[in-house]
Amino acid sequence: MALIKITFDSASVSSKQDADLNHFMASNLNGRIYGLGGNVNVTTSNNYIILSSGYVQVYGRRVYVEANTKIAVALDGNAYGYVFIRFDLGNNTVSLEKKETPSGYPSLIQENLQLGGLIYELPVARYTKTVSSLTLDGNYDAPKIHSPDFLAEDRDLAQRASINSQYGSAYQGTYSSVSGRFFTYSGIHSGNANNGFGNIYVAGWNVVFSTAAASGSGAVYQYKFNGTWYDVGIQLTSSGLIVSPYSAAHLPGKCYVTR
Question: Order of strands, edge to edge, in the sheet holding 54-58?
């Protein structure tokens, strides 16, 4: 047992030690290192799939891809395929390869190289072919490793969206539809307005209500008009908030719900 120097002059560092740190600092992601070189983007020409320059990393093992690195795809029948970079720690090699199956995309070998695995096939492109054509799958986005700033911003946006989804307010200025004296606000429903309190404007009066109480069979509240109290039914459903003033002469207005 000993202390092993890493960032010191004349230190001897194993590839695994370096890879473990690289993988951790890349948020434990595998893929193309996005933002360096040409991002290992792909194009086709004369039945070749051609890669642009860039870096890839798998469990901290980093490889540089030179511009115009390419692989041939024989048009010998219908097939679905991947182009991938094969990391082979057992033989200490990396290679650009392809794998095809006649129906559905093939499976790739992706062992955990940190825990004793030896083979990892990192996809950089997905394609289909016939006897006369080679087509890249434009909807396929090969795995990426973004910068820490990008990941932080992306996670911040996701967290904000989650908070807004769970606790954000819901607002609708006018009702969506009316049937008799039942006015439906379809933009405010049980999916976005549960467990909060709302405010609906009826005949010059702001009626404050509980969305929990309004769920299910609904609840009855009151508002005052010209010195007289009137009832208004409020029901929160999956298809909208249904407001039904007992006086047909009184129309509901804007509605706001806060959770």
Answer: 61-65, 54-58, 31-33, 144-145
Token reading at 66: 């030179």
85-117 burial, b if ≥16 CB within 10 A, otherwise e?
Answer: bbbebeeeebebebbbeeeebeeeebeebeeee
* Spatial contact of 211 and 193, defined as CB atoms under 8 Å apart: yes
> Which residue matches tokens 């820490």?
148
| Euclidean distance between CA atoms 8 and 211, whole angstroms | 63
pLDDT in tens, the chain (259 residues): 688 888 888 888 899 999 999 999 998 999 999 999 999 999 999 999 999 999 999 999 999 999 999 999 999 999 999 999 999 999 999 999 999 999 999 999 999 999 999 999 999 999 999 999 999 999 999 999 998 888 888 888 888 888 877 777 889 999 999 999 999 999 999 988 888 899 999 998 999 999 999 999 999 999 999 999 999 999 999 999 999 999 988 999 999 999 8
Cβ distance 141 to 41 under 8 Å? no
Residue 162 vs residues 71, 195, 256: alpha-carbon distances, Å: 43, 16, 20
* Residue closest to 56 by CA, chosen among 82, 92, 84: 84
pTM, to two decimals? 0.67
